[in-house]
Structures are given as structure tokens and as C-alpha cells.
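Example record for the data management plan.
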Amino acid sequence: MNDEAVIETLIPVHGIGRWTAEMFLIFSLGRLDVFPVADYGLKAGVKRHYGLADMPTKAELDAIGAIWQPFRSVGTWYMWRGLALPVDADDDR
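Corresponding structural encoding:
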């Protein structure tokens, strides 16, 4: 079953939305090319890593995600983990 089919199967379940279904794909099914553009941690990580002044728009995330294909889940994980790193005082980001 492809990713969109899994998402469409899960969304009708009460309490499960797109974000939850995407997390299920990443963490339970081990899918490597899921890109949860609504995820705050992904947005914050991209903002920090790429030195953006504001949170990235969906279009900006889509452009970045296109570069990461077919491993967008892995890129997302790195953005999440990067938020745990200390911010260097000499770093302009």
C-alpha cells in the first residue's frame, strides 16, 4: 500500500489526522520518504538550519523536500534532532 493510501485509510478513524498518519508511516512502518509539512518541529528545524528569518512556507518546504527525495523522512528526523543542539553564540542563525 502506498503512503497516500495508508493516510486515506487512517484518517477516517476518529482522532487520527494527516499528521498522525504521517508519524505512523515514519515510526511504525519505517517509510523513508514521508514529508510532514504541517509538523512544527520540521518547520522550526528548517528555519534554524537554513537561517531563515521566519518559519518556512509550504512552498519553501516543498522546494527543500524535493532535494531530500527519496529520503525526506530522514531529512525530517535530522531537522528534529538539530533542534536539540545548542545554538552557538557566534552563529548568525
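Summary line stored alongside the record: The chain has a mean pLDDT of 95.
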